[in-house]
Amino acid sequence: MQMNHKISSEKVLFCDLCRSPNKKIIDEEGAVVQCINCGLKYLKLRSSQKDIAVSYDYNYANYWRDFAPEAELMYERRCNFMQRFVRQGRVLDVGSGRGEFLGEVKKRGSWQCFGTETSSYALEFAKKKLDIELSLGQLEELNYPDRFFDAISFWHVLEHLPYPSRALKEARRILRDKGFLFIAVPNDSWLGRKHFFKNAFKKAINRLPLKNKLKLKKMYPQINEEGNKHLFYFTPRTLRELLKRCGFRIKAQAIDYDYEERTAHIERKYRIDSLICRLTGINFSNAILLAAEKKES
Ligand SMILES: [Zn+2]
Fold first, then answer.
1. In this structure, are residues 180 and 291 in contact, taking their beta carbons and an 8 Å threshold?
2. CA of 4 to the centre of ligand 1 (A)
3. Global pTM?
4. Fewer CB within 10 Å: C terminus or N terminus of the chain?
5. What is the mean pLDDT of residues 209-225?
6. Three-state secondary-structure class, residue 224
7. Residue 267, SS3?
8. Which residues of 26-50 are buried (b: 16+ CB within 10 A; e: fewer)?
9. 146-192 pLDDT per residue, tens
10. H or E stretch at 265
11. In angstroms, what is the span from residue 40 Cα to ligand 1's centroid?
């Protein structure tokens, strides 16, 4: 990606989940570290928030221009999941992008929709195409009233935030008692990792006395790759821990349907992964989905 300004970066000193400064490197090129105390994985070096916001604007203006009609199923499934727990009221979607999720919620007719977004391009798009009014800024800057919402969603947003715990505490403040939080993030457990099984197989082959070694797939993007960056890599366990520490009770865990296309193969995989998750609680898929309830203080 081409951007015409200098990128500044900041060092991350403490784990956002447990505050420990102790970490070990798990991927040098990607600058990914793991907290020795609680196991949370995060970037030890990251772009400043200003640069990240600029890169989202750039992406919305240049790449994510229009809706993919095939992605509708993804938003329908997320909306169905939410409605298993709350059926009406005020919903806030944090990091709404172009507003597709709220577009789906609006169709159901029983919700008052609110959303936040840091890209003004995305904001205009949501207004023009879906007649949805989003608020520009980070959640913590928008000062919503205490106990205002019945449901709050973070669809693949938490891993992009510099301090997920701050956003979750703010969400807790503005949720009514026993209000619901819905969160989806990529699954970074070894089970959910895209290249884990392929790499494990190649590593086994590479142990044989052969001349040419097989090249392993990269597990994390390199630090100098710009743009839509993940600052955290959650597993089902670290995400649950984070929510508990921020004052929530986990009510359900499931598979997030994180596909912008529809094929028979994806559908089969989704159904099998969902069934395994329902029966065993184990998530083999590429994305985690949680419902959590606000605990009274
Ligand atoms: Zn930690």
1. yes
2. 36
3. 0.91
4. C
5. 80
6. coil
7. helix
8. ebeebbbbbbeebebbbbeebbeee
9. 999 999 999 999 999 999 999 999 999 999 999 999 999 999 998 76
10. helix 264-280
11. 5
